[in-house]
């Protein structure tokens, strides 16, 4: 097992394998790298230099009460890439991994980054008269507080329906139990703190400013973010490519792993040969 220790003493678990263009995978809320990327890591590392890691408070990384915000996670991501001397990186985020990446670009910059991969995520969770692509199609501050309070008070009851919603096809009781068990590696206090941090954010204005090639991977059967959100994102991110996964929900890398792996590998290879023109 490989770890690096942050300036505030938190060990971050990571893996590094393969050769070629560098890809860094950023997992979602209460998830971890070993379990959730298990259908992708070996295939991607066969052609590329792949780095995966567990966010602080998640998986095998250190548990702490501090630093659980998108800004804190963006700083950890920069620390990881600096320590491993990573450049020309394709940053790929799923779910909460997307706001981690967008916060990184806003607060740290894109100097180490060549391209982006954004997997089934909305730029704004709360719905209103001007925004239809919120969590579960309709979500509010009251809903967020209810979910956070449920995680703190009765986690299994609150979290298992969310995990089940990750998929277009329902998971078996055995699969759901294993997935839920993995998510409990993240303390409930951390899970709730994160919801209150990133769910109120709105990244819509940032999308048009992204000056990097961007692969968008969206499940056609996502109940987490229903509707043509992928197309909306594609129309607003200048240099973007949309891949629709017709047999997937919120987790296309899990439900259609071969298509996901091939799409991402081809994208990384393609952008490696381009002359990158960064936005001012």
In short:
The chain is an alpha/beta fold and 280 residues long.
Strand content: 15-25%
What is the fold named in CATH at topology level? Rossmann fold
Report the radius of gyration as a whole number of Å.
17 Å
Helix content: 25-40%
Question: Please, could you describe this protein's structure?
Answer:
The chain is of the alpha/beta class and 280 residues long. It is built from twelve helices and eight strands. It has helices at residues 33-36, 41-45, 70-83, 97-107, 141-153, 155-164, 173-183, 188-198, 204-207, 229-236, 252-255, 257-272, and strands at residues 2-5, 11-17, 22-26, 49-53, 89-94, 113-119, 214-219, 240-245. Strand 5 (89-94), helix 4 (97-107) and strand 6 (113-119) form a beta-alpha-beta unit. The longest helix is centred in the C-terminal third of the chain and has 16 residues, at 257-272. The protein is globular. The chain starts with a strand and ends in an 8-residue tail after the last helix.
Write the layout of secondary structure elements.
Blueprint lengths: L1 E4 L5 E7 L4 E5 L6 H4 L4 H5 L3 E5 L16 H14 L5 E6 L2 H11 L5 E7 L21 H13 L1 H10 L8 H11 L4 H11 L5 H4 L6 E6 L9 H8 L3 E6 L6 H4 L1 H16 L8
Helix pairs in contact: 3-4, 5-6, 5-8, 6-7
């Amino acid at each position: 097992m490989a770890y690096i220790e942050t300036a505030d003493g938190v060990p971050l678990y990571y893996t590094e394998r393969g050769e070629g263009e560098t890809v860094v995978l950023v997992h979602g809320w209460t998830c971890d790298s070993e379990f959730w990327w298990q259908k992708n890591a070996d295939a991607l590392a066969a052609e590329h230099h792949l780095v995966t890691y567990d966010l602080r408070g998640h998986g095998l990384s250190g548990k702490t009460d501090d630093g659980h915000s998108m800004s804190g996670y963006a700083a950890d991501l920069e620390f990881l890439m600096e320590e491993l001397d990573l450049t020309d990186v394709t940053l790929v985020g799923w779910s909460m991994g997307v706001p981690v990446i967008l916060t990184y670009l806003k607060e740290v910059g894109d100097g180490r980054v060549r391209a982006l991969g954004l997997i089934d995520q909305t730029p704004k969770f709360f719905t209103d008269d001007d925004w239809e692509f919120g969590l579960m199609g309709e979500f509010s501050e009251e809903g967020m507080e209810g979910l956070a309070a449920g995680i703190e008070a009765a986690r299994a009851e609150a979290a298992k329906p969310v995990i089940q919603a990750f998929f277009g096809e329902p998971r078996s009781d055995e699969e759901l139990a294993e997935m839920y068990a993995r998510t409990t590696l993240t303390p409930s206090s951390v899970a709730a703190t994160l919801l209150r941090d990133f769910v109120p954010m709105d990244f819509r204005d940032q999308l048009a400013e992204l000056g990097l090639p961007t692969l968008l991977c969206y499940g056609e059967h996502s109940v987490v973010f229903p509707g043509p959100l992928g197309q909306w994102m594609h129309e607003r991110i200048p240099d973007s490519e949309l891949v629709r996964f017709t047999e997937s929900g919120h987790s296309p890398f899990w439900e259609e792993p071969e298509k996901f792996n091939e799409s991402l590998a081809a994208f990384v290879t393609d952008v490696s040969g381009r002359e990158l023109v960064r936005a001012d």
